[in-house]
Amino acid sequence: MQKNATAVRLTHKPTGLVVSCESERSQSQNKERAMSVLRARLYEMEEGRRQAERGEERRLQVGTAERSEKIRTYNYPQNRVTDHRIGLSIYRLESIMNGDIDEFIDELATTDQAERLQAVA
Q: Per the count of CB atoms within 10 A, which of 36, 59, 82, 121 is most buried?
């Protein structure tokens, strides 16, 4: 039977995480071991939170890749290109395919600016 109590219990108040250690022979060794275990668990929690956050951001950027999330439709029989994000259709498929997309860019910029102003107001 031990004469001195050597067990250590640490509580991280912000998270409520509790770590106890009684495997070492002295209280100071138990305290060091408990601190390293607490640090490791806090690191794992933070890393898990970051990965979840990063995954959520990625899911929002990628979307579901369903057909309803299409950006543009190129309709060759009607000589039409439609940008579904802004609802703009242009009937010059050949010139757009050759890189003349200024109308789309201008309209997208205008729509983006309007959305940002709406969010601020």
A: 82
Give pLDDT tens digits for 58-84. 887 776 666 667 888 999 999 999 998
Is residue 30 one of the residues assigned to a domain? yes
> Which CATH number is 29's domain given?
3.30.160
Instruction: State the residue range of the domain holding 110.
Output: 70-120
- Whether residue 28 contacts residue 19, with contact meaning beta carbons closer than 8 Å, is answered with no
